[in-house]
Design goal:
It is a single chain. This protein is globular. The chain is an alpha/beta fold and 322 residues long. The chain starts with a helix and ends in a 9-residue tail after the last helix. Helix 2 runs parallel beside helix 4 (151-169) and helix 6 (220-228) crosses helix 7. The protein has helices at 2-30, 105-118, 143-146, 151-169, 186-192, 220-228, 230-239, 245-250, 266-278, 284-298, 302-313; strands spanning 49-50, 55-56, 63-64, 67-68, 77-81, 89-94, 126-131, 136-138, 175-179, 182-184, 196-200, 204-206, 243-244, 256-258.
Length: 322
Amino acid sequence: MAAAAATASGALGALQASRARLVAAWCAQLGLGLGLPGSVTSTRAGPAMWAQGWAPAAGGAVLRRGYSSEVNAENELRVRYLEEENRGIVVLGINRAHAKNAISKNLIKMLSKAVDALKSDKKVRTIIVRSEVPGVFCAGADLKERVKMHSSEVGPFVSKIRAVVNDIANLPVPTIAAIDGLALGGGLELALACDVRVAASCAKMGLVETKLAIIPGAGGTQRLPRAIGMSLAKELIFSARVLDGQEAKAIGLISHVLEQNKEGDAAYRKALDLAREFLPQVDLVTGLAIEEACYAQTIPTKDRLEGLLAFKEKRPPRYKGE
């Protein structure tokens, strides 16, 4: 039995080491860097980080970028309520430059807190999800953090990511994903949870989890088929294929594709234009009032009483349109 246990332990260790090497290889492809025990070298990404806040340009809508050399966990997600003609638009800006906006425990905690506040804020009319880091939307899970997790931690954490992504999908106002760069794995799943997706032609999108011997875990297996069809979704997931903006537009994954501008925010500017179009339409307060008025009309009907009686008697209802 001791020999069998040693063999099993050795096999598990080999499997874990293999998984770690897969993660390290994928991190290297993304430029993230991951030092493993026994590694000869350990590549580390530069510490460049966007400066605190954005400086508004004329009109308050287009924003100027700056840099900071410090990594501040409190600034990994920036929530901005736009003003003047953009009042009612909220921008969620992901800001983890040192990790290509990879999804970490802290980022999920901040997203969850922001979404909880937004879903009950009646002044919010449209939400834009974007990156404040040039050339990237979200590179997916933070694999450097993930590889350090015990296997018992992974499942609950992925469930938390899935829950937050679902909360975004269930927000009561229109949501727009502005994809100005890399959107891989969980990053694309985050975008898929939004009602509308726009991207720069140079953006790269894909559910690449099968390269790491796993599958999409934050709704990608469900939302991608609903967006582009079952057969093509399977093809993209099985192959871990990465598409550019033009290819994504051709299959219906995104609604609009734009040539990138020198500021690197073409998708965000288009998202802002769309959000402005949405503002004059029915807002949440008015919509709920309409719902209440319509529901009130059903209360005195015979069909409503018949439905309740049928439920009580466990039989099909016999509606008459009365």
